[in-house]
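User: Show me an example of a complex going from sequences to structure tokens.

Assistant: Sure. Here are the input components:
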Amino acid sequence: MNKSLSKFLDIFWITLIISFSIYVYLDIKNIFSTLKQIQKEKIIYTMKIENETLAPLIKFGFNHALKEELKRLLKVNTAIRYIEYKNIKLGSKKNVTILTFPIIYNHKKIATIKVGYTSKYLLNSFKQKYFSKFVIYLIFILVISFLLLIYLRKRIKSLNILAQALEKLNIRKQKEIPLIDDYYEIKNITNALNKLIKQIHAFYNSQKELFKKLIISKKELETAQEIAEMFTWHYDCITHQVISQNFRKIKNKFNINKLEDFINHVEEKDNVFKKLELLCKNRLNSIDEIVTLNLSGKKYYFRVEAKFIKTKKLIIGICANITEEIKRQEEISFLAYHDPLTGLVNRTFLQEELKTLTSIADRNNKKIALIFIDLDNFKFINDTFGHEMGDKLLIEIANRLKHSIRKSDIASRIGGDEFILVLNNINSKQEVEKKIEEIMNILTKPIIIDNNKLEVTFSAGIAVYPDDTTDISELLQFADIAMYDAKKSGKNRFRFININLQQQIKKFYSTLEELKNAIKNEELILFFQPKIDIQNNKIDGVEALIRWNHPRKGLLTPYHFIDIAEKGGIIHLIDSYVLEKTIQTINKWSTNPILKNLNIAVNISANKFLEPHFVDELKSLITKYHIKPSKLQIEITETLSIQNFEYTIQTLKKIKSLGVKIALDDFGTGYSSLNYIKQIPFDVLKIDQSFIRDLLKDRDDLIITKMIVEISKILNKENVAEGVENEEILEIIKNLGVRLVQGYYFSKPIPEDELKKFILNFEKNQ
Amino acid sequence: MVKSMKKIIILFLISFTFLFANINKEVLYIEAKLYPKIFMLIKNLQNKKLIKVAILANKNTINTAKTLKNFLTNNNLKIKIIKNLNLNYDVYIITYHISNKTLNKLLKHKKVIFSISPNDINISMFSIYIGVRVYPYINPILIKKANLRIDPILFKVGKIYE
């Protein structure tokens, strides 16, 4: 500070002196020139004045007087050093300026006089005066400068103190600079600096807060990166180097010290670098690659994403470990195409693969055999030994199947105890026969699971591509049908699909199609079988039963189409149809004097009952047709009630809460325990007709029926005996205390018109 | 109109003539103050402490000469009014128009001649010229003729008669 100030002062002084000297020099020069001019003018003026004297002297020839006059002039005027007129030459010509003057008399030039003059005396006189003035001025300037210097030094000292205070200023602590001088400018500077310090301090604090936030978000980001096992990197398009600031965060995880080592382990390294170069040349928009790393025998997957920053000639990217994600994707993919229990491929994979295999077979002019295998009596094993044992059995069978086929063949599990084998490159049926016999032999060997020796048999159906069909779905159906045929034929055997079976399938599908149309065209109609209160001799209600009024075949019972509907997956449509028709009938009967007191029972299949929106559908139909819910009775089978027990109980409770009555159908056939029965919220118990039918012949059935009736009484439930066909059975039933009966003894299922007549007749006979 | 104009001109000329014929006292006074100074510039007058001055007068100008004498009060002047010319004086102040003979005589003896009337400058060396200002009236020809040495300053301050 002091150095620069003194330097400044030096320069100032030097400049001042030089400027002053130049000024003085020019001024003197100017003055000299002016003085010379003045001297000249003075001489001219003098001579002009002298002209008045000299002219008459010359004119009238006063030579002596002229000479004297000229002498006097020379004497009096010190500047004039030389005068020449004709022969008169006075003074010295040395160092003089000669001027020639005309002598004018009466406006006429009568002579000329040469006058030599010098400015020396005038200049000397000026020099003396100027020097003395100069000295005075110099002294004055020096004094003024000295005073100014003292003054400035004082101010500059204040500025120096201010500068020192600024140097010592701690930005972290807001401390004002004290006022060191009352001088106006210093005061202003100090105040301005204090304002600036305040602003800087405020800015510092805001930056500090911002920095803290930045650190926190940086830490969060780093933690997130650490959790996500990722790091950021950048690639310099000029030096072709990859640099990462936060690679260290994941290096311990993979036991790699350097980024270079990491890069060297990337299997697709060359490809990635090629793409980086393309990105640098703007031939790519971005990079999104999954790369593989083989580290200590383990495979890791990383996602590499990058973008080119054109302005910086830089590629910025991330590298994230997605090994777990890839593995999960693989698992999902595996699960999508594999059976989780056995590890065999599933139906989806099989169907997709079959497309490829059939193309290959077509190209190679070979055949494919599709073998549908189903365990015989697997349900029995499952029920007897439990599901765990059943699963273990399936796993063992899957293993045997896998080992019994070639690598080019496929073994798949398509559900439950159903397996499909695909044998490739088959030349003939005989070859398939031979192969299936081998497989059956392997499969039927006893299996020991948890010390239980199991001997299982299989039924298999075979369809051959392209001999039987070229359609893959049809091929599967054919194999399935052939398998059912094998089952029908006594199990533990295999069957090839044949023309008869194919016709059956065709028939099945045509019937299914007709059934779908029947629903649309309302060809399905309701028949009603009355339920008779034998204790009070009156008609209590009816059971609604479906009939198909086939346009060509006439009236068909459910036996002809329910099985097809179930297999064709449209049973729920029939259930919905029957339910709506029943509720509609209740509504219709509510105004009929003969039928209005009847309640109607309707059978609901397990499929329909287990639909998640069944209760909502029921509720909406009740609302739609404004019926009294107690007029409707939902019949579910005992077997259904114990499947998904918790869900069934909940659904039944909801149905009951609507006011609808519940009947347990086919009671006695479902192996259900009394403990289960106790929990089911039903109203009516229907004794299965298989017990009723043989009451006269089979004493056990009588005992069972008696027990069932007792149970219903204990549980305080209504009971209904189905299948009452003659008077003897009716008598027994009546004696057992059954109140309601239905069966051919009273009436077979009849249409609405006949029902009216039946009611009228029944009432008439009573 | 023409008659009246003529009258005015005649009157003017009469008055002018009268003015110069009878020089008033103021002019004489000025001449009395001026002429001694001119004496001092005439180098031929060697004894400046006593300059003998003759006022040449006739019966017409005697009073004027007397008046002039009275005005010339300088101690270093010895003044006498003379009617007949004699050459004992250094300076001659003529009050009337002298003859050429008288003039030549004076010139021959290098006498300094002053006239009180500027009209007589042709027969004197110095007189008084009255214009906007009052100047010494100098006749250099006569001065040269008499071979007088005068201070050139006179040519500067005086009016030259040619």
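The lines above are the inputs; the final block is the predicted structure for all two components together. Chain A has a mean pLDDT of 88.
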